Sequence to fold (1172 residues):
Amino acid sequence: MPTIFVDGQELQVKEGANVLEACLSAGIDLPYFCWHPSMGSIGSCRQCAVVQYQNAEDTNGRIVMGCMTPVSEGARFSLNSGSGADQDIDNAVDEAADVTTVEASIDVPTKVPDKGREFRQAVIESLMLNHPHDCPVCAEGGECHLQDMTVMVGHRDRRYRGLKNTHRNQYLGPLISHEMNRCITCYRCERFYTDYAGGTDLSAQASHDHVYFGRHQDGVLESEFSGNLVEVCPTGVFTDKPLLKQYSRKWDLQSAPSICTGCAVGCNILPGERYGKLKRIHNRYNDEVNGYFLCDRGRFGSGYINSDERLNYAGVRDFNGEFSAIKGGEAIEIAARWMKTQEGAKNTQKIVGIGSPRASLEANYLLRELVGKEHFAAGFGDRESQVIHRIAAILKTTRAKNPSIKQMETADAVLILGEDVTHTAPRVALGLRQAVRNKAYELAKQAGLAVWQDAAVRNLAQDQRSPMIIVSATETRLDDIASQTVSLAPQEIALFGHAVARAIAGQPSDDAAVNEAAAALKNAQRPLVVSGSSMLHSAIVDSAAAVADALLADSTPTDSTPTDSSPTDSTPASCNSMLSFCLPECNSLGLALLSEEQETISRLLDRADQIDVLVILENNLSRRISEQQINKLTSSGIRIIALELLDNDLLASCDLVLSAASYAESEGTLVSSEGRAQRYYPVFPEAYERRASWQWLLDLAAASGHSELAELQHFDQITEACGASNDLFAPLAGVSPDHNFRSHGQKIPRQTHRASGRTAINADVSVHEPLRKLDPETPLSFSMEGLNRDQPASLTPFYWSPGWNSNQSLQKFQSEVNGPLRGGPVGQRLIEPQTNGISQSSDFTPLRIVQKGTWQLVPIYRVHGSDELSVRTAEVAELAGEAFIAISSELAAKLEVVDGDGVKINLVAAAGIDSFELSLSVKILTRVAPNCVAYSAGYSSTLALQPGALAQLSKDPDWQRATPQLIASDRSSHASAPQNNRPSPDTDIDKGRDRGEPPHV
Amino acid sequence: MLSQLRTMWEILKHTFTKAETVQYPEEQPYLSPRYRGRIVLTRDPDGEERCVACNLCAAVCPVDCIALQKDTREDGSWYPEFFRINFSRCIMCGMCEEACPTYAIQLTPDFEMCEYDRQNMVYEKEHLLINGVGKYPDYNFYRVSGLQRSFKDKGEGLNEAQPIDVKSLLP
Fold:
């Protein structure tokens, strides 16, 4: 570790770091704009200027950019002191100067004006020349990096009196708002969007002070990661549009550590609430999982929590068939009565439960205990159950490592089998985009370049990337960085995977593509195989495991030091093969681990006549089983109790509905696809009679006289019981501190110390302030009292540090720049690679032969649209559009259709599939496997389509083309017609008082 | 003894001084315009609400007695959907007025706001908003800010250049 001197202070810094990183890691504030911890340096904003001195005697020094200057042993810099001399010499000088200047001894840093400081002031003054005077109406205000840096540098007065540049804004879709006047041209947006996330439609345009960041024309940003622009932009050019509609400042947002429920990746998030509404979601840093970025589903897909379709009260069906809202206690009584009668009859067969992969582990565990293991179905669809249980079984036994995203980013060869990762596990795809850059880092190492020299490294590598082989049925969003793409039908993907496994083991295939893929993986130090459940085909999953296994058998012990700056990889050399699976829902893996028996919903339904009460936990069965099965269930006379957050079709046929709290109003543990158990905490108290599912189930257990569960009273006790129930779940209790945890003697506050309006928020109801809501279940409080400091990282409710109001304050919570959080790791990994795993069989025969004239249906997923809950958010629904069928251009020519035309799909009847007809809009893809057509999965109109089913296609002559629609308010900033907004004089005065008179002036 | 006599003399002297008592409320005292009394929300010279719902007054309020929620007009400009001051908590410190970037919130010399029912001390926007500019007759925030409004296109604000044509190659 080299030693450098900053303002005479001796610092031990990390080898290979730059001065800016070194200063920030040491807790020294040095302003910056263009540098980003995960995107490196380009030295464009000139804000992190420091003075470097040749030696202790050098008094002149020269200005260098902190982000572009590597640290070296004994290097001397000054930020504020104006001297490169070290502390001793400085003191000696002070003593020599004697006591004549009192000011000097009080204010040492300004004794000599620092050239670097003056330079930084001049830079920010010039950056601010064109910055508009609109902080009060800017959504970034109060969490603006530009505000922070301006204050930090000490620039106060504008001297510029000329005209300010202005720019026209663009419509960038329903998620991102654009205000180009505020730009300080740091290039972070373009570097994130294009270089980091692989987007193609946002660019830097024009030159000098005309530089413009936008699209070539108005339109929705295409990238699935566009929301990160909100956090990446140091000022308010890109802001969160859904937040703007119901805006609250950062300091007013009540937030708590949470986990994204959009997919199975388990990104850490910080949702913010005000006035009982979830306002926005920001990234919560977890160096191993999501780092600094989220996908748009995670960031914008939680609007459903504020939906009018939320269930607020429990409801029971009357004798006349209508629902009526009832008190929670009554609901529990009714349910207990139903359940008790059955127990009285001593027939234990009669209560069954269906769990949910989108409910917490605790709630699923409680339901399983309540109804008994043998009567608990996991709540997956039949094929989904098969695949997900297969994945869980593989992960439990494989020797390959199930990597975190951070580890995936170190992979130097990637094989993707049957997965469009960008749409099924978006944040993983962003990680894979960084993995292919390992080639560039390798080249940089050879050329002696530091990895943070972003522009230089990219220039050096140009289009050279680490190999990435994508085998999929349709084109994927990662095709642009793939070294090899292969289009195959699902069963052939499995065959391909097994062939690659055999080729690695030394049996070359006849297929050159297989051999090429095998060679690329074999040559890699840290190969990664990515597969998943999206094709609902367990043979694909098996083949991925076979490849990872073959790589392990093949690997000779090699040194597994990654090329980039993450030396924490402590896996043994024999474990350098990685195997990752994309799973559909936030707790799919947890539920698969919990439900050891492969009891499925259909097996439960087969014995419907023996069931009296069915408890469904947060699960919309119409997405899991066919319409016939639903009809069978509802007509069987079973009493159905459903716990649900949002209204849906299934609830109409339930007898009792309990209003469940969303993830933002309750606590729980989720197991991500990495096998990482992570805790989420309530962000705000539940309104109405919504309650966490675990609370409903606990009350139900107590009321129905379940002796074991009746002993449990608190959330922590359920977690403990759940952890004790299974060896794999043993680490659960250590995921996060229990409710007794206190930091500095107090609970951790969910509100910032600057939260406003406490005595006025409820004053319209009653001027007497209510007692704040207590939270007995967690170590957090719904209050501003307490300290957001020194607690375990899993309990950090927001990022703020004095002088750092923006999300850049995160670095004060990190142990070092880009390093782990000070409070330790977040979450516990439940599954580690085994030392002697079973080897996967490489034998597989295709299941289905496609007849001529028919096409095999394969599912295609969309970030916006395929997920059940996020699509109930208005903005996401707008982006999701309508369901479609994706076909190749050859097929389109044959059917004589173009994009947007309708195609009639005739399902060919087969085992388990009835003949069926449906028309969908056409989307033409560049790459579709032969004999396959893809349908948008997860959309309500395509729920009847099954992957692997055969269909006949024909043009629908009666198809009405959908007209593109825009939400009018989104376009409003482009409205130019002046309006007379003068309000009428306020005559509407209540309480008989005249408060509207003008003041005495 | 002497001291007591002196005291009596001093007090008796006051019999002949002019009384300071004012016949309030018939007689109103003069209060300077910057006296810190009842809070109002003012309008800009064009008659529009000045408040842009930036939340700074609420943030700076030491007793947290201001609550508001931002809403958006059709042209994208901000205004408070509701604006509530709980005067039963207000200490008339005037920090909200100091914080206000648009001169919207102002304190007036009216101090007569007693109520029998404390709930009546809660003022909503309709009670706070007046039809005047208050102490600052000329200021209109949106004329000087870079934001586009229905009455002002980009480049038409104070000290603003015409919008840049990105497609132009001219320097």
